[in-house]
Amino acid sequence: MSDQPILFSLNIATLCIILFSTHQLVLRARSRQVYWPLALCLMSIGMVISMPSIQRLIPQFQVTSLILSLPALLLIAPCLWLFTKGLTSHIPWQLKPKDGKHLAPAAFGCLIALVALCLPVQYLNAILVTEELSAVEQAPSLVRNTLYGLLICAFLSVLGWVLQSTWYAYKIVVRLRVYRAQLQDVFASTEQKELRWLNWLLIVVGGVWMFTAFNLVLDNLFSPIHFDARLYALMIFMVIYSLALWGLRQKPGFAELYAASPPADSNSIELKSISGGSDNAEQKYQRSALSATQATKIAEKIELAMKSDHLYLDADLSLPKLAAHIHTSQNYISQTLNETLGMRFFDYVNQYRVSAAKVQLREADSTILEVAMAVGYNSKSAFYAAFKKHAKITPSQYKKQYQPAK
Fold it and tell me: Would you tell me how many other CB atoms lie within 10 Å of the CB of residue 134?
């Protein structure tokens, strides 16, 4: 068929991206373990989508690759979850024994694959490649019953993969929502750390997963949906390219805290539990020794750092930097901001930035971007969002109010 060379080329291109990216991730994982799950995720995807290339280049390996694609399929979603968990962790992420539960479905898939690989090749080929089930009926009863048992287990595993993928997608969305709230307790600028690309990728991947899952179920029960395979291959290529590109570019959002304070430090900032939801301020600081008098003094030091030292102009200002500047623990500053001043670190700093921006918009003949950069923002979009939140109008509208009438 005319579309076969295109399909093969797209498949080879996708696999090349996976191989290159996996190699780069493995090199990085030597110093930061968070990249291991993404490397394993990409390798699993590569195993699942490699069929067109294997069928053309090494057809004798076609049955084996089909069998191994089951555990690989069950490994994709947990690995993406562990990667997200690592990127959003406030301490250096490491694989722990309790994380093994996420790999249990893939381990079950490996067991199915191991049993299948021990069976005669001709029967596996009849089921997986030629679909000649009549040949299975001629097999010895033990082999025949084992094959049917494996088919049932494989079908249930595919259905389980649909539920698994949905569950992990939900967990990732919840994790990212809480993570973005946590960022505002630590950083004055969060746009480079919010992992928005992961949300968009989830939407695209979710669409691909839903279509693939629906088609797999229909293929096993009735007949698959007929669609242009080239379009599907191109979609897979774009998803893998995006995942590899952003995965390689992204570092953990709280990486700056890793060197700032050890995980067990009693003065390190306490972050809200992902599994338990948002804790209120009283629960969060109930064991703190900070008194009202101390909190008032810390609040004065914070305001002095902003008003006199203009610390808010630092585009990379963070809680550790403020703590070092005023010689106070991060946890005490966080508690003072939340309980005494009644706002997050992000909002507190941005109110000073917006106030300074208002002065420049009224008095200086500068562009919106120049004003944004001058008061500590790294991008125009972040400046617009903060300004509208605090001033209730856009910078352009505010500037227009003070322009002389023509």
Answer: 7
Cα separation, 30 vs 377, in Å, equals 34
Nearest to 157 by CA among 107, 199, 198, 120: 107
Say how far residue 166 (Cα) sits from the centre of its chain: 15
- Amino acid type, 381: S
With CA atoms as reference, report the closest residue to 350 among 313, 320, 379, 302.
313
Residue 200's pLDDT band, with cuts at 50, 70 and 90, is: confident
* Helix, strand counts (H, E) of the chain: 19, 0
**Residue of 157, 159, 180, 177 whose CA lies nearest to 169:** 177
pLDDT tens across 170-184, in order? 999 999 999 999 999
pLDDT at 225: 62
Look at residue 232 in the predicted model and tell me its pLDDT: 78
Domains of the chain plus CATH, in order, are 4-258 (1.20.1070), 272-401 (1.10.10.60)
Q: What gap in Å lies between CA 158 and CA 73, rounded to an integer?
A: 8
Mean pLDDT of 201-219: 71
Q: What is the DSSP string of 205-254?
A: HHHHHHHHHHHHHHHHHS-PPP--HHHHHHHHHHHHHHHHHHHHH---TT
Q: Which residues contact 331 (CB under 8 A, 6 or more apart)?
A: 266, 267, 268, 269, 270, 288
Helix, strand or coil, per DSSP, at residue 327? coil
- CA 236 vs. chain centroid, Å, equals 18
